[in-house]
Design goal:
There is one protein chain. This protein is an alpha+beta fold and about 230 residues long. The chain folds into 2 domains: about 60 residues, Type Iii Antifreeze Protein Isoform Hplc 12 (Alpha-Beta Complex), CATH 3.90.1210; about 120 residues, no CATH class. About 25% of the residues lie in helices and about 30% in strands. It is rod-shaped, with a radius of gyration of 31 Å.
């Protein structure tokens, strides 16, 4: 083997070694990325906005693949989870679906209707009211004429709570300085008459508040106690 052949063999060996080193480097980078990112799983995001309390269906979502470690623990990874559920708040297009963004569709008894109203988070809920609780709904009204006393009325007694939504920031109202900055949507199962009473109170009452009924109680209020004015205490 002459000198030229020896140089060729040496260069070939060096080329092979360089190629093996580059390949090992690529494998190392891939292994490092996989260790940081982890395996990918299916997640689901909304194709369009979904209004609050709207029934959810698999057709509203599109499948995306994301690293498992980038998803929250309550991320929806199986569309079977959304069947029979409704949105608890307004859901935005492109949002990844999570289990706390939906609840089971309430089951109403014959003659009942479902109605949701916004309740002052501090004075009306205070974090103690849960689905299936029973509450009395109070509303305060200003006097209709000058000099007439303001009144507090029991609008509905023993109302069944179906769902308690997420805390929501309200837009400031220049005409109502006493309006709470935050509120919670509360959903009730009520008769037609009680639904009308609640809708009226939400529209015209100065404030609507909830009073939690103790377990086992029915919240019955005597007819003479359903309306209160300050002069009753004189």
């Amino acid at each position: 083997m002459n000198s030229r052949q020896r140089r060729g063999v040496i260069l070939l060996i060096l080329s092979v070694l360089c190629a093996l080193g580059a390949f090992a480097g690529v494998l190392s980078v891939i292994s490092d990325v996989n260790s940081k990112v982890g395996p990918e799983v299916a997640a689901y995001r909304l194709k369009a906005d979904v209004p609050p309390y709207t029934a959810l269906s698999p057709k509203q979502f599109e499948k995306v693949s994301m690293p498992r470690r980038w998803l929250s623990d309550n991320a929806v990874t199986d569309l079977a989870e959304v069947r029979g559920k409704i949105a608890v708040t307004e859901l935005r297009k492109g949002s990844l679906m999570q289990s706390d963004m939906m609840v089971k569709t309430p089951e109403l008894r014959p003659g009942e209707q479902e109605i949701a109203i916004m309740i002052d988070a501090a004075t009306g809920v205070a974090g103690k009211i849960r689905p299936n609780d029973r509450v009395n709904i109070y509303a305060t009204f200003a006097g209709e004429r000058d000099g007439e006393a303001a009144q507090s009325k029991v609008i509905v007694s023993g109302a069944k709570v179906l769902d308690v939504g997420q805390l929501t920031a309200l837009e400031p109202d220049r005409d109502d300085r006493n309006r709470a900055p935050e509120a919670v949507p509360i959903t009730f199962a009520l008769s037609t008459a009680d639904t009308q009473r609640v809708a009226y109170a939400e529209s015209f009452a100065k404030h609507v508040r909830l009073a939690l009924i103790a377990p086992g109680g029915d919240g019955t209020v005597r007819p003479g106690d359903r309306t209160y004015t300050l002069d009753k205490d004189k």
